[in-house]
Amino acid sequence: MTVTSKVAVAFLTDMTALLSSTQNGSVILTLNRPERANAFDFELTQSLRQALVQAEDDPQAGCVVITGAGKVFSAGQDLTEMKQGENISYREHLEKTYNPLILQIRNMGKPVIAAVNGACAGAAFGIALACDIRIAKTSAYFVVGFSGIALAPDSGVSLFLPKYIGLGRAQEYFYTNKPIPAALAYEWGIANRVGGFNYQRLVSQMAADLARGPREAFALGKMAFNQAYLPNLEEVLNQEGILQEEARTHEEHRRRVDEFFDRRKKS
Ligand code: T3D
Description:
By secondary structure, this protein is an alpha/beta fold. The protein has a single domain (5-198, 214-266), classed as 2-enoyl-CoA Hydratase, Chain A, domain 1, CATH 3.90.226. It has 12 helices and 10 strands. The strands form 2 sheets. A 6-stranded mixed beta sheet has the order 1-2-3-5-7-10, sandwiched between helices. Strand 2, helix 1 and strand 3 (63-68) form a beta-alpha-beta unit. Helix 1 (42-57) packs parallel to helix 4 and helix 3 (90-96) runs antiparallel to helix 11. The longest helix has 16 residues, at 42-57. Residues 1-14 have low confidence and may be disordered. Ligand T3D is lined by residues 36-37, 39, 72, 75-80, 90, 93-94, 97-98, 119, 121-123, 143, 145-146, 148-149, 151, 154, 244, 264. The site of ligand T3D has 28 residues, from helix 2, helix 3 and strand 6.
């Protein structure tokens, strides 16, 4: 993330799968597995959860930005890990990873921005939708993703997506797995802002503005939106887990995951 102001202070705290830096009162968390399209393995979900706890507790931090390193925001669940753990219950996996992560983003008393720098698929789409605001690069796109590997939506996508774009469109994009380009995402209210050359500036400005608060009012306001608009989020996440566990047992899922890797080997 480019430092745009002379007073900005940005420093990296580690060089792992999740980079953390600070800038103008915001914590910037960068998913950093570009060789795997920033896909989430167990370590990355746990690192992100831990970093969000730290950001919540940090009195200097008024806002959090989640973004991706390289050309992709995130491809969602790491399919290599999924293939290695073929017999692991997806319900249990969701309960240890994406479900608490989604709830944490929503329950955090600070605004969270998804700076969507490129493709955003599957569970990563759920994470981006759980954020308070999405700023997308013009070249970015969103893919529901799950049906591509014969899964049902999880990570809150079955709740968030219809709320943003309506049930008909949400189902169409789930069934067809067509990408939703940034411009369309903006038209439909998924993306709050879309930027080309000015993308970094849009992110930095929004983050700096939100970091200034008023912090207590922001925290109470977020709680109000959660109670009014997402009162059943936890229940939906639980139900998604039950359905995903059933989807895991179908042969079609296994076949499609294998196909994903076969295509890679051939190209
Ligand atoms: O229990 C549970 O938790 C179940 C929950 C599931 C949640 C989910 O998220 S399910 C959905 C999983 N995600 C996908 O199916 C998306 C798969 N990826 C893609 O469709 C594309 O990669 C993207 C549209 C995201 C980006 O496309 P592109 O062309 O920019 O990048 P790429 O070339 O496809 O990917 C770059 C590399 O990342 C490539 O590696 P290679 O071949 O160069 O060595 C690719 O194989 C790898 N990669 C991409 N996605 C994943 C991945 N590796 C592991 N897991 C991935 N999901």
